[in-house]
Structures are given as structure tokens and as C-alpha cells.
Amino acid sequence: MVVIGGIIGAFACGYLSDYFFQSRRTPVAFIFYIGQAIALAILGLAQGAMFAAFMIGFSCMWIFGVHGMLSGTASMDFGGKKAAATAAGLLDGVQYIGSGVVAISVGWLLDRYHWVIWPYAVIPFSLIGALLMLTIWNARPSKRAAH
To answer: What are the CB-based long-range contacts (under 8 Å, 24+) for 115-122?
Structure first.
């Protein structure tokens, strides 16, 4: 379910961005961050193992879809031909910094509240991502970046 959800999310983000938002990435990222928060909240409430397994895959659709779009496509958009690798490295590096913060903070929560807290511990990060997307809602790569 994790792999299937990730693949569906990647295709959905790309399709929505290109065909519904004129290749703008931020509206789709906003939608997917909100989708993450909702899917994780439902996962936290899941009672049965089969439903929880489905919700993990469904959550991964939202999580990996936006991750792939922002780390790959957005770096090319805003880095242009000459700086795409630098932009991708910068975005990927920030992701690893975030992973370190999450590992410490969520690890602390798991030690105290066990795995039941995990979906809820991730939701604030999804909402922060959504809020950040609102601040750059109309951002478009400049024509100059493409050269």
C-alpha cells in the first residue's frame, strides 16, 4: 500500500499541477498537505488492522506525492537549467534537517505515548507545510530562471 499510494500520489500531483493549475506547484502542495493532515487524523482513529493498513497507504499518497513534486519539479522550476542541481540539493538538504528535528521530537513522543501518538505528531508538520504554501500561492518561476 505504501508503494501504490506513493505512485498514485506522484501522478496525481503532477497531473493536477500541469492540467488544473497551469504548472503552478503551490496550490497542489497546499491541497496535498491538507490531505496529509486529514488522512493522518483518520489513521489515528483507525480501529481494525486492515483499515489501518489501507490508511497508511492512503496517507503515503498525500505524503510522497507532494514530496516528489516539491523536491523534483519545483527545484527544476525555480533553479532553471543552470541551477537545478543546486536547488534540488538545497531542498533535499532542508528535508534532512527536518528529518533530524522530527526524529528527536517524535522519538521523544513515542517513548512517552507509544505508537498511538505517531499520526497526530506528524499532523502539525503537514499544517505548517500548508501554511507555507499559502504564503507563496501565486509564485511562478521567472522566465530568467529557465535560461
So the answer is: 116/44, 118/44, 119/40, 119/41, 119/43, 119/44, 119/59, 120/40, 120/41, 120/44, 122/36, 122/40
